[in-house]
Amino acid sequence: MSFPYGLVATDLDGTLLGSGESISQRTRDALAAATAAGAAHIVVTGRAVPWTRPILDDLGYHGLAVCGQGAQVYDAGSHRLLTSVTLDRQLAGVALAKIEAEVGPLYLAASRDGLDGDVLVGPGYAVTGKLPSTPFTDAADLWAAPLNKIYIQHPELSDDELAEVARHTAGGFVTVAMAGAGIVELLPLGLSKATGLSLAARRLGLKAADTIAFGDMPNDIPMFAWAARGVAMANAHAELKAVADEVTSSNEEDGIAVVLERLLG
Question: For a Cys-Cys bond, which of 50, 66, 76, 250 suits 44, CB 3.0-4.6 Å?
């Protein structure tokens, strides 16, 4: 059985995961067949390691994962953090001030660095799903330890509108990424899923030309630009579909498996 790619890179939410944060048996089987044919599988997610580890453990996944929007390269087999990039808190503070000067007060959350870093959630910030988080009320707590990213929400602006304002006003200080519904993030300047994936791929002796990538949101655009082939899910954001080489079925309809099965012949 031959497979034309050495690396399969998959986003998690809205891509590999279906409802209930589960991975279907069909998709598990297709990924297993691709790896049996010699390909490596790397999960590439906006989630930091603490929010990713339980899913990888459930999948029986022992490879490398790129977490935190590219900030962290994680060895799931040994539960070790191999690389980690943190946000310059001074620049992040300037970025937040500039955005708030434009649109008024924001609701904030932040992801602490490390294998067990908490996600801190401030007043008004709505956490999607049932992910564990720690509330904070004093803004000083937000800046008290190294961070991978800051999450921002606005009481009135849509995600697209907020991301656009953030890029326009603060894009010289931080990278702005939209990773899902209600998830607009401020990241270290220049960081993306592509930077993290290239680091992880290099550890495996693989290159962009070896890679097929699957995703669903604008934060996957740099990964698609890096990979030889980018496949958007049917449920993907219009911005990602616009740059994809192919659009497959939705995450609920085993879109990853549909493509992998075809490539496996």
Answer: 66
